[in-house]
Amino acid sequence: MKYEGKNIGILGLGKSGYWSAKLAKSLNNNVFVSDSNTNVNEMFVEDLKMLGIDVEIGIHSNQILEI
């Protein structure tokens, strides 16, 4: 099975969401992370954004359905 070039959506930016996003990105996937909570680890957010991962905080928009 090919694990590259997929669109991957991750709900939640706790430890498992953070590491899942990093793994998916390292496998050359398009990754989007959404967390409805506004109280998330800002270091996680900044690190993922530096890797080119789209992150939304405080809402689950329709973008998560599109990925």
Uncertain regions spanning at least 5 consecutive residues? none
Oligomer: single chain
On the 0-100 scale, what is the average pLDDT?
Answer: 94
Molecular shape? globular
Biggest sheet layout: 3 strands, parallel
Category from helices, strands and their pairing: alpha/beta
Q: Helix coverage percent of residues?
A: 25-40%
Q: How many separate helices?
A: 3
Helix and strand layout, with pairings?
Blueprint lengths: L6 E5 L3 H12 L3 E6 L6 H9 L3 E4 L5 H4 L1
Parallel strand pairs: 1-2, 2-3
Structure description:
With 67 residues, this protein is of the alpha/beta class. The protein has helices at residues 15-26, 42-50, 63-66, and strands spanning 7-11, 30-35, 54-57. It has a three-stranded parallel beta sheet with strand order 1-2-3. It is globular. It starts with 6 loop residues before the first strand and ends with a helix.
Keywords:
67 residues; globular; 3-stranded parallel β-sheet; alpha/beta
What's this, in brief?
With 67 residues, the chain is an alpha/beta fold. The chain is 37% helix and 22% strand. It is globular.
